[in-house]
Records
---
Amino acid sequence: MKRATIKQERLRIWEGWLSVFRTIQRVVREPLGAMGLVLVVAVLISAIGADLWSTHDPNKINVRAAFASPSLEHFLGTDQLGRDIFSRVLVGGQIALKVSLVSIGAALIIGLTLGLIAGFGPKWLDNILMLLFDSVRSFPTVMFALAVVTLFGPSLTTVMVVVVVTQIPIYGRMVRSQTLALKTSEFILTERAMGAGFFRIISLHILPNVIGPLLILASMDIPFVITIEAGLSFLGMGVRPPTPSWGTILNDGYSYIYNTPWPVIAGGLPVVLTTLGFTFLGESLRDAFDPKLRKDS
Amino acid sequence: MLLYFLKRIVLGVVIVVIAVSLLYAMIHLVPGDPVKTILGPRASPEIQAQIREKMGLNDPLPLQIVKFLGNVATGDLGEDVFKRKSVNTIVFEQLPHTIYLVLAGIGWALLIGIPLGCFAAVYQNSILDRVVGILSVSCIAIPTFLVAIYSVLLFAVTLKWLPAIGAGDGSLLSYVRHLILPAFAVGLGWVGYLARLIRASMLEIMGESHVRNARAFGLKERTIVFKYVLRLAVLPTITLIGMGIGILLSSAVFVEIVFARPGIGRLIYDAVTSRNYPVVMGSVLVTTVLFVVSTTLADLINAMVDPRLRARD
Amino acid sequence: MNSKNILEIEDLNVEFSTPKGPLKALRNFNLTMSRGAIVGVVGESGCGKSTLINAIIGLLAPNASVTRGRMIFEGADLLRQSKQDLQKIRGQRISMVSQDPMTALNPILSIGDQMVDIQYRSDVSKSKKRDRSIEMLRMVGIPDPSMRFNDYPHQFSGGMRQRIAIAMALQVEPTLLIADEPTTALDATLEVQIIQRLKELQQNIGCSILFISHHLGVIAELCNYVVVMYGGEIVETGSVRDVFHRASHPYTQKLLECDPARIKEVTNTLPTIPGEVPDLVRLPTGCIFADRCQHTVQQCRDSEPELRYITPEHSARCPYSSHLVNR
């Protein structure tokens, strides 16, 4: 008996990996997907190993070398205080990724919970939650950020709070609609008739159906969140100088845009590449999972 | 249908009241004394007490909120703390600039985005379609403030074709010249949204039975595409723009700051950084009202244009 | 070609290219329609009716190809016409009424607008076109047509919309009207009214009708001739009287047997034809109906049966037809 189940388990794991591999295949086949994957991997490598790849101390001031153009010494030139832009960009990438992963993670969990509550709970609670979600979702993000900054002052925490609150509705909505759809389906009704507990239903039936789309949503959300962080930092409402966020690099660079274009180019380019990379990857992932577009089934 | 709109208006008012009350409460719960901030740390306690009394800060918070809302209802938004102008005047001086910016941005996006989406749908899977697809995704992905910065870099700094700062010297021509780059920045993302929406919408409609029928009757392809399909396909655009007012306002803030343009966005930003609370309150209020009005307006336009919705009387 | 015939389809074969191979949707299709004839086409889903219609009006899917055959309409081969010429014929000489009235009309244009649009090839003034359309609406039984001319499709019921569709199709006085299951989506009383109307109009205008349906009663009521299709080919042809009273193909017989209208006793179970429609990519070597026929013998599976003529006008693709008739 046990031997059979071990074999089954191994087979299931093997099949799981195989389907992941096949999905990656499908993604790479499309030129956009391949490009997206390359960009994302590049971003991840540069961000995770920022300390490794840095050529200088990102905060080291050297006024004599200010406004230098790109060279072998400084790959992307220097800013108005002579700091090496390349190293600053790398650290900025780390911050961008940290912010996005942490905030999206938090928003996901809170959104998941709220979505489940909205789906399973009483109708009036659902209505209130949906009204909240819709209002938050359509309210101008920057206005909300300004309000939060008024409260807490500018900081990385501020940015993360703004991101979490504005992104919760996205996940909440999705989980809610899935829950509502599954709540009345045959097998759930059967399970409940058999006395299955609340948590069992959620973990065995709802969660597996929801995880996939949630992850795709999250991956498509990353570029958006990175943009928010960069934008808010650019406005001076996020990361405080001298910490190098892509936004602050852009802010510094913009003030001196008539002196040298390099800080602006260097600060903006990673944002563009990262958002394009994640967006392309996200789109082709979504297409890869769409059964209607599968030509090899 | 009238009942429906009355309900929407009431809901709108409720949203505005809640938002403003929340903001008021937040500002006055902020650690740090607004009076000290305004007057500076050197002001004597007597003057502080005087100002506090004048600003009504000694009343309990709920009463303050009610008084504020009451004032709003009569059109009094308070007074600017630093200059002695009424917030009313300041806000409504700046508002038109933002409105022009937003209209110009959406305007050019519609002019370019709809035809792109239309051609992508008609020539589905052709090279044109794929190129439009990639361009749309790229337009959506690149943040507005970057578009603004780079257009300044390219057109103002490097090529020196267009001005980078301000709203011009007052003449119409100068105003328009100064509007070009900002409107471009605001609208670029929308070109992507619109092209994708129109393409998807048209493809869906072209698969429907009535289009096949129109073909079966031998109608010219051009008639079918423009009169029978496109008109139907643009309807979701109205809803999209209505829902996207929030995004538009956010973009306006960034664009106004990058281009140092006058407008509500810049006003709020400056007011928040200088802790000019009455101005903050006034502009947030006006923005929220604007926001509610435009979503309702979008719904109204939708109902007028789509005969199917009119039937729900 | 006989000048009395408006449509002569000879040996039409249409294939669709699919990932699994070529799907032979229509095979060896022959049909002759004279002026004023009403021909019914009977068959279940997948028998090739839609392919036939699409071939005639020239709107086959991009992956379809006509591998053999001719379709002579009013002297010219439809398969050899350019796209522009076909566009001229569609909606002018050949008209169509389609299946679902609820989705057949454009929802944001008034019916008047759509009816006038179709007449774009005519040089007369717009008001003349409007009058013609209103007249046509009156003839199909739309009450108060000049008032309702500017109304939108959703303001009409299903039955009304189908009448409008018929009015649209007949206002140009086509030579051939193709009716693709026009009453399938309507209930029985509406069906009767529509068929009645159609009969009157046909007598007035004198057009020929190709009437596709799986409702045998309606075919019997309306048509002179009937073609029975199965699996992409014709299994029986003849006058309505011949085919319905002296059915000579097992499939036709089964259809008649299973028609709910013909069941004279109260029963709990309705008869059905056992089995499934054939795979049109991997065609069987013998008779297409062999798998589901009660009378199959080895010869049925070995080679494709020849067309047998019971009378010069009545033919069936089954060698045992005479035996069956005698039963």
---
Amino acid sequence: MHERTAAQIIADEFLIARAKILELAATLDRLDRADGDIENSKQLVLLSQGMQILCDSESDKAKRVQLLMSRQYEPEWIEKMAIGRRNVEGA
Amino acid sequence: MEYIDPHLHMVSRTTDDYETLARMGCVAISEPAFWAGFDRGSVDSFRDYFRQLTDFEPKRAAQYGIAHYTWLCINAKEAENVTLSREVIAMIPEFLDAKNVLGIGEIGLNKNTRNEATIFLEHLDLAVKYNQQILIHTPHLEDKYQGTRMILDMLKGDSRINRSRVLVDHVEEHTIEHVLENGFWAGMTLYPVSKCTPQRAADMIERYGPERLMANSAGDWGPSKPTAIPDLIMEMKKRGHSKEWIRRVVYENPKTFFSQSKPFVHG
């Protein structure tokens, strides 16, 4: 496997990332200009939290944004849904 | 570079797409049964759909030198209708001996409901009974993580299931580890907005290695790009990866996985 250095990645991808930041900025500007109060909307809160992940110093940002935007997994779901079986033994 | 697309819904694409795919190096396609965009009304409508998958589509693909393979099921969305689902599951064996059927799929969950899970388990029983491979759809967007974990629970809870014969599709950054560490194959879907980009797929290949990993376009009736795998090939070339490494993901891995089904004779 070929591995790029950080310098190569920023050189290759700076303009792409810049464009994506501009798209987000433009979306937020459209929200500012539009009528109506969505300050407490779940989607706006999620976007804000997602952007905070981008700015923090921890790794795995893509995974953490995915998990932020996901429904919770409940380990006891099979029992709660009562779908009948947990372990099936093969022949 | 020759490639195989493990997940492409050609029933919803024009013949022009077959020509484009052939020109871009696609040599084989695997097409799981899916939701048509509306809920079908009867088992006969599924019977006609399966005829299309097993008879018409292979002929259409062959005009452009592409081998067409398929999977059969009632999809997760329509699985909410348990009565219809059971009629379809009972009818599927009529088609399992068709020359291009690789197994049962794409089964899975949609909104992660009890009915969907019930029908998913009944599909597993069908696959085991007829010794079929399994191709799995994991849910979209906010339902994906919860649904993938539920699907893996059901698979892991059944010791009859041979994990090396199961492909869990549409993995993303928060689900790929769970799939791979439990011994299943994982598919990354290159689909605009609601799934993965070629760049993020390339990241996952670099991070987890090519073992048991594939990519697909899942081109369908929605905004999608059937030629997404060549986009991934291009991205990986731009990053300096070798032809052998790229070919492993886009050709050798699908060939290895599908060769576990007798009808797959490509290469």
